Amino acid sequence: MFNTKKADGASAASGSPGKSFEPALLPSARLTPAYEKTRTSNHSIVDECLAMRGDLESAGDILVKGKVLGNIKCKVLIIDTDALVEGGVEAEEVIIRGNSKGTINAGRVRLEKTATVDSEICHQTFSAEEGARIKGALRCKEDPVDGEADAVVSTAESRPAKTASVLSVVPEASA
Which of 26, 105, 129, 138 could form a disulfide with 113 if both were Cys (CB 3.0 to 4.6 A apart)? Predict the structure, then answer.
């Protein structure tokens, strides 16, 4: 009567073992659209309701939506809008939409327009959207995770940056 059509040699109503069903996420469990673009199967999330103190290390990706006070080592780190990471970061790629204070060592660093960064950034490639706020130093390296900086980009140095372009600078407050 219902579902009498055979699928892969078995009744569709019998729940054949060859088929796998993935339950739908509840609306409250869905991830933000921005993270969906960068999502992999091996990721961890620091939720916006969470403030962590201590070091984090992951073989996968980490999305920070809350606050982390400590060092982070991972493959890809995303600091979401209104999030804060205060400590050292070591990753293949860092995407900052929120706030970061501390040293960042990464192959690729991308600051989006909502980013506020007070850091020394050691990178191979660097990009910043217009509106990103940067206070600190940019250091271009051949291998940012291992070794010292190859070139320092600052006002004291006369040579141009290899890959860095600062689109907006935060003026220092007078004391």
Answer: 129
